[in-house]
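Lab notebook, bench 4. The sequencing result for the construct came back, and we need a structural model before the next group meeting so we can plan mutations. Quick request posted to the team channel:

Model the 3D structure of this chain.
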Amino acid sequence: MAAMGCMVAVSVVRSGWAWPGPGVHRGGSREPSGLWRRHDLLRVVTSAGWFDVGRSRFAGYGRSGRSEERDGVGTVSRLETWRSRAGVRAWLPGALLIGFGFAVFVVLLDGVRERGDLSTLDQPVLDWLVGHRGTTMRAVFAAITLVSGPSVLPALVLVACAVWVAVRREWWAPGIVAGAMVASTLLSLAIKGLVDRPRPPLATMDIPGAETTASFPSGHTIGTATLLLVVGYLAWSRHANRRTLLVGGLVAVVGTLAVGLSRLYLGYHFLTDVLAAVALAVVVLGFVVAADRLHAVNSGRPQQDSNLQPTD
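Done. Here's the predicted structure in token form:
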């Protein structure tokens, strides 16, 4: 810094400039007070060699810090970005959700295999709900099951995502919703095939024989929980305030509870089937959170959470 200051001073002296007073030339003539215009400063700095040494810094003069951060993110590899402090802050919440959901799922699966823990409540809860069925509640829960089923819910999500893309002219958010739904469906089918748990007895089903696939986990529940959790997260991440958090959380809890309870009430699933589906939906949400926050770091997209901005 001292050497650069000397170079600037020497250049200024050689050019005939001194500082006896505002607008006073070395030769004594008075120049207009606005003589130090931008191009004069540029000529002096260039003659000092600073422009050549720090061209990129001078060229970025006047740009916002966020633009410089975006340029910086684009110059490093994606792996280095993920390993940076900003990257770790981005994917860590998602990793915690994945770990929590997976741990709960493993505990539930272990109980189902060994017929212990919470699985001991499966038959008592099912018998109590079946014994308290009523005509009105049966119709309500049948409608909820129909809407959240594999033939209706995916179609609704597809139409909603298509409208989202057409109206908002963006693809990332609707794409991540659709991708999460596909992932949850494939995950549910894969685990059903591996665990191969039988459904509750036909005598307990509202419509005997209506469900023929394996019971663990509940496909209706994981689909609904994934949709509501992901949409709620996307809304909150773009508009981070207490109201959005409370409304999104309430909708996710009530909607998931309604679908899960409908599957139990109609006798198509056990309690642990529903709980395992919710745990897997949290795992899917974790991947969504990590992917979305890393995408924000890589693209420099403005976020409500300042921690998403790259700092390294």
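Residues 79-308 form one domain.
Will bring this to the meeting.
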